[in-house]
Amino acid sequence: MRKFLQWLLKKPITKFADKISSAPDRDKVFKSLSQLLKRIHSRKKDKGIIRELDIQKDKIIIFSDQHKGIRDGADDFKLAEKNYLAALDYYHANNFQFVSLGDSEELWKNTPQKVMKHNDACFAAEKKFEEKNNYYRVFGNHDLEWKYKLQQTIFLKPIFGEQTKVFEGIVFKVEYNDETYTIFLAHGHQGDQRSDGNPFSAWVVANVWSPVQRYLQISINTPATSFTLSDKHNIMMHDWSSMQKNLIFISGHTHKPVFASLDHIDRLTRQLEQAQKNNDQPAIESTQQELEKRKKEYAGKQEVKINPKPCYFNTGCCCFDDGDITGIEIANGNIRLIKWNEENEQSNRIVLEEAELPYIFEKLK
């Protein structure tokens, strides 16, 4: 019976979830991101922090959108937990700084008390970074409660320590060729009318969607399954960052990975054009096959970018329904989009995209 209901209801439930989950407004996205960046630069400590970054020495891993739950049928993170723990062990052993870029916990569906009880292994792995002073937390829309000092004191500080702070954004300053470059990190919900502190959306998710999801065990991973929504929002965030001087913007929220302003479809489209230009028939056929495979995943895509300014990156998420996780690495002068997946019961790190940061900096001009 459950399988029949899953088949029957997944599409209408997904459409309903899409409607109440995301409504980015271009003017509001631009205004919100600009205000946040300005407040961080003006040293508003409740908004964010500024840190100097040596791209040759410092190493950073950025994950977002874990949506840690309570290991029930509505927990989108439970399938990804093994890869997430393996990744954190790797990055801790290799002395990376760790940025958790929002929606770390799923507090629309669950109370903080319940979430904190069911994630001991993850919190222990994250705490190792805090003990080395290598841990940064940013709040998103699904864990907006961490914005408030009272909630931090009650739930986070007993686990991570009194020094724990949660920010809305982080700015890393990089000196390169006598110029200053900014790497700006924020969750990305800013200006999304149904995500940026909207109590109605949170109520619907908690009281309507979650009970249905628990019973049907459907993981729609909204807005990840609706590329129309996430593409629209990613385009807005790219357009905002493209108007800034010497700035790279890294966000999460949409659950769709973006590297140097190109998603996977953009990159394949560019490869196809190059193959056609070179009259490389094997490359043309293989790229067309790959585009055909991705057609459903990217249904509704509004815009294909070929040579954009490489100013925008998106981590993807740590709650894909196949257990994979994606993130952004900065290390050894490079920036990378990475994926961790499981094969033969082993978690593996895969570099999906990579570029030298000096190259990116030059292209920003």
Description:
The protein is an alpha/beta fold and 365 residues long. The protein has a single domain, classed as Purple Acid Phosphatase, chain A, domain 2. Helix content is 41%, strand content 20%. It is built from eleven helices and twelve strands. It has helices at residues 2-21, 26-41, 81-93, 112-117, 120-131, 149-160, 199-216, 227-242, 264-277, 281-293, 357-364, and strands at 48-52, 60-63, 97-101, 135-138, 166-167, 169-176, 179-186, 247-251, 312-314, 325-331, 334-343, 346-356. It has a seven-stranded mixed sheet with strand order 5-4-3-2-10-11-12. β11 (334-343) and β12 (346-356) form a beta hairpin. α9 packs antiparallel against α10 (281-293). Mean pLDDT is 84; it is low at 202-207 and 222-229.
